[in-house]
Amino acid sequence: MIDQILDFYRRRKPRKYGWLGDFESWENAKNKCEGYDDEKILAHVIQSSLKVKNGKSVWERDGFNHEQIYYS
Fold first, then answer.
1. pLDDT digit string, tens, across residues 25-49
2. Sequence-distant (≥ 6) Cβ neighbours of residue 48 within 8 angstroms
3. What's the CA gap between 27 and 24, in Å, rounded?
4. Chain segment 3-17, per-residue pLDDT in tens
5. DSSP output for the chain
6. Could you tell me the residue ranges of all domains in the chain?
7. Can you give the pTM of this predicted structure?
8. CB atoms closer than 10 angstroms to residue 60
9. Which is nearest to 36 in space by CA: 64, 65, 63, 66?
10. Kindly report the CA angle at 27 between 63 and 45, in degrees rounded to 5?
């Protein structure tokens, strides 16, 4: 019974991520998306990486510079 309730909930809940929409081709779907191949994102990541390389930042993750190392 619980499995049926969870399944119903998952189907009714709107998804934020994943494969959504009906597209006739991969190219049509790609044109509707933003991603890491976006020139702005690439330029931002390059600049963040160069700050680390040039000693202006301690480390970088996902294009964001950090001034201290965080250990998990």
1. 989 888 888 777 788 988 999 999 9
2. 57, 60, 63, 64, 65
3. 8
4. 888 777 777 777 677
5. -HHHHHHHHHHHSPPSSS--S--SSHHHHHHT---TTSHHHHHHHHHHHHHHHTTSSSEEETTEEESS----
6. 38-72
7. 0.54
8. 17
9. 63
10. 10
